[in-house]
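Colleagues,

For the teaching module next term, I've prepared a clean inverse folding example: a structure given as tokens, and then the sequence designed for it. I'd like students to try predicting residues themselves before seeing the answer, so please don't circulate the second half yet.
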């Protein structure tokens, strides 16, 4: 038996197609569009009929007749122009669910050819406070990283710190402007550093001199000026500490903390390769590579700026080379918003021209922005940028409203309650993000995102905690989970829903779309709730039925925990809901 119900149906269909001399490419089922009629349907006859100029209903009837020999269906019908509708036998479903409940991976498969994939997400900049605009790249990147690892790929996640561009010269220039020199830099903390950066930004916008000074300092820093380097190291290290703290709170993790600066040496190599291949040219003092002009004009890529500095594009090209040569990347995926679409088109084209990433797949995944109720990028009440820290704090204070105060529940002290508050608050933020498809932006729903009901992270966590309590009660009563028997519609529906786990995860992996997992977790939790209301466990009619329902409950709990884990969300044992 194949652990996966859907795969077993596909295998059976393949056998039948083969026997009938039909192209096995069309031998697969999909979840029925008509759950009132069937559980699965196969529409292969329609496609085949078109190609072979035959009557689809005749083909479908032949397939249906052959399928009758197998012992999985309660009912097989040919409907409409040639859909084959399959309603499964309860014990066929039950056997499969029993089997996956005993499997360590709950029946989930892995990719056939695992490969090494480097995920580039986060991308925070030194000296810049992290804000709502940084949320999606980290949250989505973390989820994809977990999904890719789970399906068996060899994942390396890299934060790609912005630590080598003009902002570095801007901030050093600003400190010199105020202090006359850089002697006080070692004493500056992160608040002061980000403050300098904010002021540098304003001054450079208004003042040509300041802009020129900043780009000169940047070029000299990159060229190895020791005084600048020393100051820069301090700014970088303070910023990295702050960034790490932010990501840690959100449970966003990286294998590598490489920055643009780490690509400096390779940048030099890229410039050489480009020259040797005759791809670069000098244009108004800068060294550039011109790109193919297809239907839309593409500006050239700047390798070396006119003042000798290396820019953002060059560091990205060099980083590709490092990831291929030092990490063995076979696929590199970048996560940013749409403002960088052109940037990645440009660098992918140059990388191809230079031949530094042959047979490596390069992908740019673009996500929409987090918006306020007015449809514009999310802001604080007074119109400022919402820092990540403030966002997390806001979520926590919402969650605290739903939890008991310290001292109100026996056995839970302030620290334990606060830990729970963080787990729920972060789940609320992450789930609200991940339930939306990556490409679409979303409105940050201040009213509902942290509620314990509706399509929220806390709702799924709460569903898990409720099942935990059912399991504890059963254990106290000496009830053990056992063989699944499906008597009612609610049990059957829950079991069928559980059987979709593997295909949902594989779809999320194939399409790099965590929202499939978020959606599924939500509908599964709802399905469980319907089951639980209709099917008593401790008061079931027989011990056998109670044991079966207990197994269904435990499996649902395990699946929900697995799904949240793939989304980078924790599942607390209890929720202490007030
Ligand atoms: N630091 C960049 C920014 O703030 C994002 C980095 C994205 N990743 C990359 N490899 N370019 O815009």
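(Answer key — instructors only)
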């Amino acid at each position: 038996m194949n652990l996966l119900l859907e795969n077993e149906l596909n295998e059976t269909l393949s056998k039948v197609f083969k026997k009938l001399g039909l192209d096995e490419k069309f031998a697969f089922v999909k979840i029925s569009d008509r759950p009132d009629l069937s559980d699965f349907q196969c529409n292969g006859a329609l496609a085949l009929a078109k190609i072979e100029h035959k009557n689809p209903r005749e083909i479908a009837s032949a397939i249906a007749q052959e399928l009758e020999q197998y012992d999985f269906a309660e009912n097989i019908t040919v409907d409409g122009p040639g859909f084959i509708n399959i309603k499964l036998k309860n014990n066929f479903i039950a056997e499969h669910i029993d089997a996956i409940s005993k499997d360590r991976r709950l029946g989930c498969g892995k990719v056939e050819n695992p490969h090494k994939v480097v995920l580039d997400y986060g991308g925070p900049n030194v000296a810049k406070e992290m804000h709502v605009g940084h949320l999606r790249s980290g949250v989505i990147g973390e989820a994809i990283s977990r999904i890719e690892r789970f399906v068996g790929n060899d994942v390396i996640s890299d934060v790609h710190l912005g630590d080598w561009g003009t902002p570095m010269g801007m901030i050093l220039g600003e400190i010199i402007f105020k202090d006359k020199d850089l002697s006080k830099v070692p004493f500056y903390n992160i608040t002061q550093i980000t403050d300098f950066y904010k002021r540098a930004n304003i001054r450079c916008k208004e003042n040509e001199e300041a802009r020129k000074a900043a780009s000169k300092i940047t070029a000299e820093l990159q060229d190895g000026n020791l005084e600048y380097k020393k100051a820069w190291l301090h700014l970088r290290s303070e910023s990295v500490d702050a960034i790490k703290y932010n990501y840690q709170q959100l449970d966003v993790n990286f294998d590598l903390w490489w920055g643009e600066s780490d690509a400096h040496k390779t940048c030099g190599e890229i410039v050489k390769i480009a020259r040797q291949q005759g791809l670069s040219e000098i244009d108004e003092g800068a060294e550039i590579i011109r790109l193919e002009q297809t239907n839309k004009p593409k500006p050239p890529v700047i390798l070396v700026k006119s003042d000798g500095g290396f820019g953002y594009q060059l560091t990205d090209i060099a980083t590709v080379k490092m990831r291929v040569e030092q990490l063995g990347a076979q696929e590199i995926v970048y996560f940013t918003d749409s403002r960088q679409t052109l940037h990645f088109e440009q660098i992918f084209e140059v990388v191809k021209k230079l031949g530094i990433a042959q047979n490596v797949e390069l992908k740019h995944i673009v996500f929409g922005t987090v918006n306020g109720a007015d449809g514009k990028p999310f802001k604080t009440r007074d119109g400022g940028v919402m820092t990540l820290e403030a966002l997390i704090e806001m979520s926590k204070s919402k969650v605290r409203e739903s939890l008991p105060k310290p001292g109100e529940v026996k056995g839970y002290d302030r620290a334990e309650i606060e830990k729970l508050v963080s787990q729920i608050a972060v789940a609320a933020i992450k789930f609200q993000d991940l339930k939306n498809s990556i490409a679409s932006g979303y409105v940050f729903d201040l009213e509902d995102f942290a509620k314990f009901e509706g399509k929220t992270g806390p709702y799924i966590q709460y569903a898990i905690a409720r099942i935990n309590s059912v399991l504890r009660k059963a254990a106290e009563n000496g009830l053990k989970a056992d063989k699944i028997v499906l008597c009612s519609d609610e049990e059957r529906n829950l079991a069928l829903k559980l059987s979709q786990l593997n295909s949902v995860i594989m779809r999320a992996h194939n399409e790099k779309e965590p929202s499939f997992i978020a959606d599924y977790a939500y509908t599964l939790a709802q399905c469980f709730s319907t089951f639980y209301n209709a099917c008593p466990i401790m008061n079931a009619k027989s011990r056998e039925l109670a044991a079966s329902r207990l197994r269904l409950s435990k499996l649902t709990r395990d699946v929900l925990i697995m799904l949240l884990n793939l989304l980078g969300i924790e599942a607390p044992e209890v929720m202490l809901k007030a």
